[in-house]
Amino acid sequence: MDSKDMNFLKMIQEPETEASGCSETSTCGSSGGPADMDPEVWNKVKNHPCYSEEAHHFYARMHVAVAPACNIQCNYCNRKYDCSNESRPGVVSERLTPELAAKKVLAVASEIHQMTVVGIAGAGDSLANPDKTFKTFELISKAAPDIKLCLSTNGLALPDMVDRIADYNVDHVTVTINMVDPEVGEQIYPWIYFNKKRWRGRDAAKILSERQLLGLEMLTARKILVKVNSVMIPGVNDEHLKDVNREVKRRGAFLHNIMPLISEPEHGTFYGLNGQRGPTAEELKHLQDSCEGEMNMMRHCRQCRADAVGLLGEDRSAEFTNEKIEAIEIADVQYDLAAREEYRDKVENIRETERRIKEMIVSGLGQNKDLEKAPPILVAVATQGGGEINQHFGHAREFQVYEVDANEAKFVGHRRVDLYCEGGFGEEDSLTRITEALSDCVAVMCAKIGGCPKKTLEEANILGIDKFAFQSIKPALLNYFKEYVEGVKSGAITPKEVTSQTKIRSGAYTAPAGSPITILS
Ligand SMILES: C[S@@+](CC[C@H](N)C(=O)[O-])C[C@H]1O[C@@H](n2cnc3c(N)ncnc32)[C@H](O)[C@@H]1O
Ligand code: SF4
Ligand code: SF4
User: Fold this and answer.
1) Does 48 sit in the ligand 3 pocket, CB within 6 Å?
2) What's the whole-model pTM score?
3) Fewer CB near the last or first residue (10 Å), C or N of the chain?
4) Does the residue 471 lie in any domain?
5) For residue 26, pLDDT beyond 70
6) Which residues line ligand 1 (CB under 6 A)?
7) What is the ipTM of this complex?
8) DSSP per residue over 176-218, as a string?
């Protein structure tokens, strides 16, 4: 186990908690997953960072960019193959052959033990490049059998590929479904290439939609978990995505990930060049909230590049360039399966303990009528993984935002920000932007915060809090909720009107060049 892994484990093993008498390092019972989840499903999702919000604090993924071609055109997509400065889907720094991809997976997995999933998500479409995609899976599954395989597709080729997908034990497939009505679809897709012919307009959208829904049914019939991605395009498919949600739910999709359209003109997409805007954070959250029901909504998607490596929200791809991978002697790569398993076992014990602690806190809060009645608050958290408040305010490139009440602390999105501590350079500007980005939060929790940013935040009625440093995020937030409500009651804290429908001012915040738009997902 390398020193980074050791630090990470130490970080998650030694929390200082005031949450309860049960130490978080102890293992209070078995790790069976949430009570309401089928154990077979839990086993598939428990260490997949995209399929489980909880898992994304502990486990990493990597994308291997082996699939350059695409069989359709979306009006929001412009693929780039040598781009290191844009952080959005469809861009990569370098292409990979299946052989180099497998070598890269081994190199990353031996360096980053929390990396549990390899996905193929472009830069084009995984199933428009089936030979490269399945060759890559074949090589990875031989060399690294504990790694989960995952693919993303627009679904056009899916019905023809389901058997091959099942043959490679791929348990997770993402299908992008933006419409179930060809009238809507013709505004999103200028053409598709199907049966050796280019189709346009409503005919194209009809074929695509039928193939997507058929593919989805075929996957769920084989118990393969399907995440449906939908890009929310205001005025085109925003209201219609409720119908999409209903149709995919009916066909057994496991998770629905409604993502905001990214349409900066400089990316050169059709929508970007024609002024099609993306949704505001408030619009996005409203739609996600209205679709949330029996079906899980994904709210922690970071809209990653096609060659992303690391925990969601961090990108370590620059550490694993083709040049570095090519220079590695495969015999020097230490793929230590036992150490990887040991790491996962420890994480699962910690998660199980945290779940029990949360239950105890919630049951304690439930005894108090004032807390039960109090409206939810939004709190921002600086974390670098491990499910803890463990990042210095000035080192945060994103803040996670939680909606907290007496019953739960729910992840509702993230805000990307400029780094505050950059050697004293431009600090005031970045602090202003961070304050704007967190304007709807009552507090920001971090491992440490300096006097100056604390004062500026307080002027905007956002408390900078570092006393929960290195504690588990959700227990700390639930404990803080009690403190906040009591503080408001006693007059020590000035209340902030915040509800789940609060207007999040994403429009007021300009993301730094090269980063995706700020979202509250
Ligand atoms: C680059 S695609 C690769 C996988 C596959 N070709 C597909 O479309 O599903 C990965 C995801 O990024 C999404 N995406 C691409 N460009 C986007 C944009 N400009 N805004 C939001 N999502 C985008 C796609 O819809 C898809 O869900
Ligand atoms: S299907 Fe995927 S890769 Fe192809 S154009 Fe659409 S978003 Fe881009
Ligand atoms: S784009 Fe979203 S679903 Fe895909 S790896 Fe990133 S966080 Fe996961």
Assistant:
1) no
2) 0.86
3) N
4) yes
5) no
6) 70, 76-77, 89-90, 121-122, 124-125, 152-154, 176, 229, 231, 259, 261-262, 269, 303, 306
7) 0.99
8) E---SSHHHHTTT-SEEEETTEEEEHHHHHHHHHHHHHHHHHH
